[in-house]
Amino acid sequence: MKPLISPSLLAADFTKLGIELESIRNADWAHMDVMDNHFVPNLAIGEPADRAIVEASPIPVDAHLMIEDPDRWAPKYAEMGCKSVTFHAEAAQAPIRLARELRGMGVRAGLALRPATDIEAYVDILGEFDMLLVMTVEPGFGGQSFLESMLPKIRRTRAAIEKAGLETWIQVDGGVGRANITLAAEAGANNFVAGSSVFNAEDAYAEVEALRKLAEAHTHCR
Ligand code: DX5
Ligand code: ZN
Predict the structure, then answer these.
(1) Which one from 28, 33, 36, 62 is the annotated catalytic residue?
(2) Does the beta carbon of 31 sit less than 6 angstroms from any atom of ligand 1?
(3) Where would you tag: which of 4, 20, 41, 165 has the fewest CB atoms within 10 A of its CB?
(4) Known catalytic residue at 173
(5) Domains in the chain and their CATH numbers?
(6) pLDDT of 122-180, one tens digit each?
(7) Which ligand 1 atom lies nearest to the CA of residue 10?
(8) What is the mean pLDDT of the chain?
């Protein structure tokens, strides 16, 4: 399981998204945050702009739905061409049914957990998902500080995945950068969302490489 770097477009310059997408062409995934001003107190650009991003992206798009009613919206993001669609455990009415629907459409299904949502309730259904997203900030805004208090949850999630003999990815999202990517990798994460740290860097392409090297040196997933 090689470490994967997923820059969050929320920190990109929205007036030149095509150029920003090209600047991270060496990344594994383009992380696209979708927010509805209900599940989180912030609104992101809507469906037409999201569709344009998916069409313009040189790398696969990973949609992170921070919205109410993902049961209704997540399949639309799969249809749009996102290769991975992650919805929140706290918002989904029927997470198993939704994950099966997404997988049936040929996309990776992800389950996201807010910081105060524990993994234990989901241990028996881990096999329904391709990825667990352990939020390392309260969702809604870029530029917040990484919550080191989430490291034990990452460790417990990795242990549960290994115990079940699964290959499920663990993504971390929020405040990830050079200062803490090694901690998240050591704890068992293998997919790293990085918004501000990549797009505020002098050279986004070089920052992706730097983060990948750090994660590779500290990964515990081989
Ligand atoms: C936060 C979003 C993140 C955010 C990450 O709610 O889900 O994807 O854009 O940005 P940084 O890396 O700046 O915390
Ligand atoms: Zn996100």
Answers:
(1) 33
(2) yes
(3) 165
(4) yes
(5) 4-218 (3.20.20.70)
(6) 999 999 999 999 999 999 999 999 999 999 999 999 999 999 999 999 999 999 999 99
(7) 9
(8) 97
